[in-house]
Amino acid sequence: MDATRDKREALYKWLHQHPELSMEEVETSKRIEDELTALDYNVTAVGSTGKVGVLENGEGPVVCFRADFDALPITEATGLDYAADPELGRMHACGHDMHTAALLGAAEALAQHKDAWSGTFIALFQPGEETGAGAQDMADAGLAEKIQKPDVVLGQHVGTMMEGYGVGALAGPVFAACVQTKITLYGSGSHGSMPHTGIDPVVLAAKIILSLQTIVSRQVNPQELAVVTVGAVHGGESPNTIPDSVELKVSTRAYTDEMSDKLNADIERIVRGECAIAGCEREPEFEVVGGAPEFWNDEDTAETVLAAFREQFGDQTSDFGRLSGSEDFPTIANAWGAPYYYWVVGSSDNPNAPYNHSPKFAPDLDPVLDLSTRAILAGISPWLMRN
Fold first, then answer.
1. Residue 1, helix vs strand vs coil
2. Is 61 left (phi over 0), alpha (psi -120 to 50) or beta?
């Protein structure tokens, strides 16, 4: 990998300096296509900005590896000499630039060393992971019809959730299913001095927010993961006016679809009940605005990949436990009905390094870029590499 390090680092820095928000990644998508085309991959556009490169190399299994490439609306404060322009108001605060550079590096290694492997490699670059829209966009755009079904779908994430420069994950639930809902409460506006002439949706919203806290504390087994978050409340403009409506934005997280469904059913029950008690003349409205699916790493695939990791990385191989965060990666694999496995690469050996989504988050370029690329090659090796 020494021969390509300068090129791969330059590509990573370019990606880092050109962050684009979810479903707006036009320039990044074009750069990905150019890089894949130069390596003789057959490139297919799938969805708004998604790109899929396919390299066939004789008989053998078909393996897909997915990387995401959108950025976040966060102003960078890393102090790096290749930091994104702060006037952009956006940055790669979650390592997606590293994911993309590593996959392009692995794609190049496979293109240059066809004598070492056989089969078909699918390099899939997905937009819009941060909003949960990108994987579904590719699935809805006919991913399963446009690209042949792989035997397995693999993916990785860099971050501080893995200690040091560790590599690995575990079977079963890894990330949580997530549902994001916009709830609109309808009261009846009136003058602030005459509250008795209206129905105050602000007071109603306050009661609902407090009531929602009892779902996890009183209606869920303490041994199960369940999170209910009210992340935004919007209503009214004047301190002396009771508004007509208030908007709540609520998210839930759970390891299973069953628990996710329960949480959201409980939310709707509580909201409708409080609205009825308040005497609202109009029913509340519920609109799902985002989320991510249930995420369970396939057990057999996990054992296969972890065995390869232990051989390649030794004591660096471990797991990071289960996380309450969410990922839309399973939607890609589910589009084909293929098994999947997803792991994490540690982004720093500093135990106090800024976490993902921090304006100061920055993977250590050396050795994380090499490590991430090697992890991809090691992960696909049980299927594609010749003995």
1. coil
2. beta
| pLDDT at residue 320, as a whole number | 86
Classify residue 182 by burial, with Cβ atoms within 10 Å: 0-12, 13-18, 19+. middle
End-to-end CA distance of the chain: 20
Determine the Cα–Cα distance for residues 314 and 333; give it in Å rounded to an integer.
28
Instruction: Mark 289-315 as b/e (b = at least 16 C-beta within 10 Å).
Output: ebbbbbbbbbeebbebbbebbbebbee
- The string of pLDDT tens digits covering residues 70-101 is 999 999 999 999 999 999 999 999 999 999 99
Domains 2-171+298-385 and 177-292 share a fold: no
Task: Judge whether 92 is annotated as a binding position.
Answer: no
Domain at 2-171+298-385: CATH architecture = 3-Layer(aba) Sandwich (3.40)
Q: Report the largest interatomic distance among the alpha carbons of the chain, rounded to a whole angstrom.
A: 81
From its phi and psi, is residue 119 left (phi > 0), alpha (psi between -120 and 50) or beta? Answer: left
The architecture in CATH of the region 177-292 reads: 2-Layer Sandwich (3.30)
Single-letter amino acid, residue 61 = P
Q: What is the pLDDT of residues 275-327, one digit of tens each?
A: 999 999 999 999 999 899 999 999 999 999 999 999 999 999 999 889 999 99
Cα torsion through 265, 268, 269, 275, rounded to 10 = 180
Nearest to 121 by CA among 35, 67, 62: 62
What DSSP string runs through 131-154? TT-HHHHHHHTTHHHHSPPPSEEE
196 a known binding residue?
no
Going from N- to C-terminal start, the domains of the chain cover: 2-171+298-385, 177-292
Distance CA 130, CA 50 (A): 14
Name the pTM for this structure: 0.93
In this structure, which amino acid lies at residue 140? D
Beta partners for residue 290, in sequence order: 180
Q: What is the mean pLDDT of the chain?
A: 97
Q: Is 94 annotated as a binding residue?
A: yes
178 annotated as belonging to a binding site for a ligand: no
* 234 assigned to a ligand binding site: no
CB atoms within 10 A of CB 366: 10
| Alpha-carbon span 356 to 263, nearest angstrom | 27
**Rounded CA separation 283/372 (Å):** 50
Query: Do residues 242 and 203 lie in contact, with contact meaning Cβ atoms separated by under 8 Å?
Result: no
Neighbours of 382 (CB within 10 A): 17
